[in-house]
């Protein structure tokens, strides 16, 4: 019965971790008024998470737009609909690629930085020292970073989509020769503010909550050793990426079934 005991022990550990994570998430959500009262802390983290991720987001969005312009043109050309290239690029970015790719890049750049930062604070006993001084680490350290990630993700997704559209325009209009008026006109007529823009924003907010929470939880629960921080950083990328892809399916299924 050793294997049965091992399965039971592992299951109990996972349920305990799930409970700790849910309690931590509720605490950070409840601390929104306190974070708004001291918005300077949140603003500093928005700069850290958003501004330092802007370069990789912009460059990635540009190249994704290039690829969409090329692939979309050669696909639409078969059906005589090359003028709809702008609509294809915009819908692909706003509905799916913008929020999803931004979240994956955000997990790899900002998520790992958050996990390493919190994990090193724990390894250096800084969080314990704060608790000894009656200062809540969740209130002072985790909550501002959490809400900064929630704010930064939609902004980065918007930058990714905008730069991607410009990349598609450069390839489609300037290089291939698609009519510029048709490119922008089809996009303007075909993009719906709710099914496309609003749904993309909702996705990016949900992904921001998921990625930032996973990063903070992994750092806060990491073993206070260099090896523990390293493993927590790796888990952040894996868990956050899987969470983004799973939530993308659920959100897409629910949004387009309404």
Give a quick precis of the structure:
By secondary structure, the protein is mostly helical. It contains ten helices and no strands.
Helix proportion: over 70%
Largest sheet: none
Unreliable residue runs? none
Averaging pLDDT over every residue, what do you get? 88
How far apart lie the N and C ends? Answer: 49 Å
Order of helices and strands: HHHHHHHHHH
Strand content range: under 5%
Q: Oligomeric status of the shown chains?
A: single chain
What would you call the shape? Answer: elongated
How many helices? The count is 10
State the domain count.
Answer: 1
Number of strands: 0
Structural class: mainly alpha
Gyration radius, in Å? 21 Å
Structure write-up:
With 258 residues, the chain is mainly α. It has 10 helices and no strands. It has one domain. The mean pLDDT is 88.
What's the layout of helices and strands?
Blueprint: H1 2-30, H2 32-37, H3 39-50, H4 54-77, H5 85-123, H6 126-132, H7 137-176, H8 180-190, H9 193-220, H10 226-255
Helix pairs in contact: 1-7, 3-7, 4-5, 4-7, 5-7, 5-8, 5-9, 5-10, 7-9, 9-10
